[in-house]
Amino acid sequence: MDSPVLFLLLSLSFSLWFSSSSLETIHEGTSLSLIEKSEDILISPDGVFSSGFYSVGYNAYCYAIWFNKPSRGKNLTVIWMANRDEPVNGRSSKLSLLKSGNLILTDAGKFTIWETNTQSLSSVHLSLYNTGNLVLQNMEGVTLWESFDFPTDTLLPQQLLTRNTRLVSSRSQTNHSSGFYKLFFDKDNLLRLLYDGLEVSNVYWPDPGLVSWDAGRSTYNSSRIAVLDTFGKFSSSDNFTVMAADYGPKLHRRLKIDYDGDVRLYSWDEEGETWFVSWQAIQKPCKIYGICGANSLCSYIVGSDRKCSCLPGFKMKNLTDWSYGCEPEFHLSCNRNESSFLLLPSVEFFGYDYGFFPNYTFDQCKNLCLQLCNCKGFQFKFSQDDGFSKCFPKTLLLNGYRSPDFPGDLYLRLPKRNLFSYADYIQHFTLVCSSKGTVQLDRTYKRSRENGIVKFMLWFACGVGGLEIICIFLVWCLLSRTEQTSDADKQGYLVAVTGFRRFTYVELKKATKDFNEEIGRGAGGIVYKGVLPDDRAVAIKRLNELNQGEGEFLAEVSIIRRINHMNLIEMWGYCAEGKHRLLVYEYMEYGSLAQNLSSRALDWKKRFHIAAGTAKGLAYLHEECLEWILHCDVKPQNILLDSNYQPKVADFGLSKLQNRNFENASFSRIRGTRGYMAPEWVFNLPITSKVDVYSYGIVVLEMVTGKGPTKGVHATDCGGEIEPKRLVAWVREKRNVATAMASWLEKIVDPLLGGNYEKDKMEILVTVALQCVEEEKNARPSMSQVVEMLLRQEIDSHSDGHGVNL
């Protein structure tokens, strides 16, 4: 085996790099080494770059290439390292170019730490080019190896990033070993940033939620090449191109993936002797995955580095490295009664969800998390613009940050017994970050002596001002004549922005062909089918004459318009013209539940989902919308079905808007439909949300049995006579005398189902319905509790870990 034959010893310090003892090339049989404080270095012909042993710790060195000009106040700028993850001992370690053509790095124990794995029959030499490329060539000029083909965290101008190379960040500013962030080409030919952490791995740039073309990228290439030119243009084969802010001829540039996971383009400022950022991939550092580790929050202040902090109840795993994140100081039991939630406002943890649950109420989202033992908390967002809520239960708390413009909150799951101890944390957490107050300027004014010219100019200005006021008044008079046209323009703008508009009576009369096709009627009015000029089908409700002025009517319509839930019918407009009062709703293809109950189209799965969806809609009316609303007429005719049999509660325009103190509510007359009305109406008791709960229970029993609430259920008594019974009493009787679950369910379930239903879920549904129709209102559950009970049953039936699909 060949061995080194020559040792070059240089006793000069870094301040004497450019003396005659510095090297531009080393030849085979030559070694570079570091003994005590002496260094062997290679220098590029223009003196810009050097390569040699670079200190990365106490008596620990890596063979590296660096930029010779030290940045003001900072260390040398390293652009490449051979052995970043295996530093060598400072003494007796050396870089040797063997006669075989192999370049090796050995430590003090004579072990080979790094090598180029090259061979050559002719003699070879190692040179450092002006480009910063360290090149190994033979006498024929054939390149055997070059550092440009093995980048670490930096790309220099004209250096290619290819399908076989990648940039890997360092662990920290002072730790040069390989970090967790990588810039590379994926299998789809896209240039991406990847967080490859201790436990999890995720792509985070471009936004993984975007398809390639939405991110401005193209997968239609196979070259997978990216390059930075000397002018400051970085371009990639996937159509990604950026330009430096100082685009143009510049002495020195470099593209680097920094330890914080951001990719930045640096330009050298010759006068200031420093590097400055001329472009960066991600503007908000806290949006970078894994930046603070698990169970921690990232915050960022412009002009400073990011700041990491543990969540309440957690502590740092490794006091010197945030990438390890934080660990809990508590034990969280699976018992839902021992857990509670701590609100962290405007905090987001993106990724690692059990699933996405749209239009879940807050209570539904909370209870879903409590049902899942490994749920660490949940993200809840509610959009005031579209009225939709979003629920994200979390399996892991990674990628956390706080932003005032984030439209949601995190609810952290903690032991109930520890919750009080975190009150101080939340008080500090919600403080305004800015410490700047109002500063009064100290100014003094001196009155100058009177000036005749100034006085004249002042009088002249007053005269001109008076003339302007007269002109403005005349213009206002002219514009007032166009007020009607302006109102029409505003109306058109309102339609464009919200989709909600005011119709004329003539428009709706034409849309319904003179109110020709009736599709429903009730105590409040008749519903007709109509078609708008844009071919949208609508349901138009023509209200009975109301003893209510236009202002009062419009106020109530305005409130109803803002109510938005996937299980509530959507209002598209209205008409208030003279004595006419009409409401325009979306049209539901399958009509009402009442029209479908006798149809075989409603199988067991559809009926259960209709029951759950109706409960969600009512829970929203009672507890979540801006104005708490009682429906007061829940019945199958007011539960409409869209093309997917998704239920939508309708006709809550008949309801009376309530104050939050329901106990003080009163109605001047009974509302509702016989058979679905709660006892409170009959006995003139205070009306609460429990009247809707009672009606809902009757509707569910009707869906289960296929029998109406008032027509009676015929049963045979002991004497053999046929006796009519009310639906609720009949179901209770069958359950009470049953000897087995299956037997009593079979006696009440709608024959149209043909026995095709889940017995456990059916029993839960009937049990919930019977609780809802208790005579005593306080014994009835709230609608949110109904949703929770049905949701719990659905979770139990998905114990294999799949999502909940109510």
UniProtKB/TrEMBL annotation:
Gene Ontology molecular function, alphabetical: ATP binding; protein serine/threonine kinase activity
Biological process terms in GO annotation: recognition of pollen
The UniProt record lists the keyword Lipoprotein: no
E.C. no: 2.7.11.1
Residue sites binding ATP per the record: K541
GO cellular component entries: membrane
Top EC class for this record: transferase
Keywords, ordered alphabetically: ATP-binding, Disulfide bond, EGF-like domain, Glycoprotein, Kinase, Membrane, Nucleotide-binding, Receptor, Serine/threonine-protein kinase, Signal, Transferase, Transmembrane, Transmembrane helix
Residue span, Bulb-type lectin domain: 17-149
Signal peptide: 1-22
Protein topology in the membrane: Single-pass type I membrane protein
Bilayer-crossing regions: 456-476
Domain of life: Eukaryota
Similarity-based family: Belongs to the protein kinase superfamily. Ser/Thr protein kinase family.
Protein name according to UniProt: Receptor-like serine/threonine-protein kinase
